[in-house]
């Protein structure tokens, strides 16, 4: 039971990081992306390669993952963010579909369908972190760091620029704001921090493959943000906790065949998002309409 709880804590922390980083661009800049799993996967694959071939140190493999994800995000952000938001959604969807093919076929880096095996434990100042309890401390610490960093950015002048762009790009541009540059920087920051979740995921499981980084994962991350509450600090964490605990609760329903649990989860996600958009568009943590 203890191992199960630690496992749940680790997964909630990892998906909370993903949701917090997506909320950074979605909730505050109004940039909707369906490619967040791309950077999740890139962080996992890059940190795994560095850990196996260079060093498993958290101060080497994790920054390498962030740099790789930030660099790749430029290929999405630079052309797409010069147009309106719906074009970015289409571009991000295209990148997500393309990335799955690349992750499946680039066997020298990703291991193809078989994935990457025997990923070494992450090294923190000479200590190998591999036990679930130890890793829970690390994953929660990284989550806290990401929350503090994104919160500081949101409360800075950069964050005010993001909110101005979200409310009206034309008005922000009329006040002299470089809208494409600000949006590009926000996407790079979001992607780089999302890579931390991928690095944690790879270090924790010691095995990764493409199935964890598909469009379904990107949709799940977006569902977490919307259900928890966009443009809030606690919303993504609340959403991650609910949507990751939910499968465990459903599995206790003895009258449900195990093969149908996945389908029921998708129905609940879709229904929950629809009802929230109608009755509480700000999410569970966000403000009610009119308040």
Automatic annotation (TrEMBL):
<feature type="transmembrane region" description="Helical">
    <location>
        <begin position="12"/>
        <end position="39"/>
    </location>
</feature>
<dbReference type="Pfam" id="PF02653">
    <property type="entry name" value="BPD_transp_2"/>
</dbReference>
<dbReference type="GO" id="GO:0015658">
    <property type="term" value="F:branched-chain amino acid transmembrane transporter activity"/>
</dbReference>
<protein>
    <submittedName>
        <fullName>Branched-chain amino acid ABC transporter permease</fullName>
    </submittedName>
</protein>
<dbReference type="InterPro" id="IPR043428">
    <property type="entry name" value="LivM-like"/>
</dbReference>
<feature type="transmembrane region" description="Helical">
    <location>
        <begin position="267"/>
        <end position="286"/>
    </location>
</feature>
<dbReference type="GO" id="GO:0005886">
    <property type="term" value="C:plasma membrane"/>
</dbReference>
<feature type="transmembrane region" description="Helical">
    <location>
        <begin position="59"/>
        <end position="80"/>
    </location>
</feature>
<keyword id="KW-1133">Transmembrane helix</keyword>
<dbReference type="InterPro" id="IPR001851">
    <property type="entry name" value="ABC_transp_permease"/>
</dbReference>
<keyword id="KW-0812">Transmembrane</keyword>
<feature type="transmembrane region" description="Helical">
    <location>
        <begin position="135"/>
        <end position="154"/>
    </location>
</feature>
<keyword id="KW-0472">Membrane</keyword>
<feature type="transmembrane region" description="Helical">
    <location>
        <begin position="219"/>
        <end position="246"/>
    </location>
</feature>
<feature type="transmembrane region" description="Helical">
    <location>
        <begin position="185"/>
        <end position="207"/>
    </location>
</feature>
<keyword id="KW-1003">Cell membrane</keyword>
